[in-house]
Amino acid sequence: MKLVKTTAATVACAATMVAGALAVASPAYAATYGGECGAGYAVVNSAAIGSKGTVFLTYSSSTGKNCVIAKRNSAGSAVLVEAGLAVHPVGTHWPAFDGGYYTSYAGPIYLSAADKCVDWMGRISGTEGGKRGTNCG
Questions:
Q1: CATH of the domain at 57
Q2: According to a count of CB atoms within 10 Å of the terminal CB, is the N or C end of the chain lower?
Q3: How far apart are CA 124 and CA 81, in angstroms?
Q4: Can you give the pTM of this predicted structure?
């Protein structure tokens, strides 16, 4: 009987430690998509912007357009926030781009890209996140 209690206690302790480790690994105030691209757009991909925020790629099947926003983990004083979107490969500049000193997010920016691969990025105060050649039709 004592062996069963000890084993159960060990399993419970291990589960608590794993749960605690997972909680610590996530940012306390991770950015979440809040419908900034408008009705009909759903998140199809995202990427961390270091520990500063998240860039969200959304798509609307009714319009055939992608939308990107780069969102800070928490709003605050205005900092440089940028978002870019292009049909892959991006080349020397982002055809859809928004950048400026924002308190929360850059974008939304839109691009018709049905059945095409896209490059997308977000940058907050010099830290960049995003992906290239993804979400191909």
A1: 2.60.40
A2: N
A3: 5
A4: 0.79
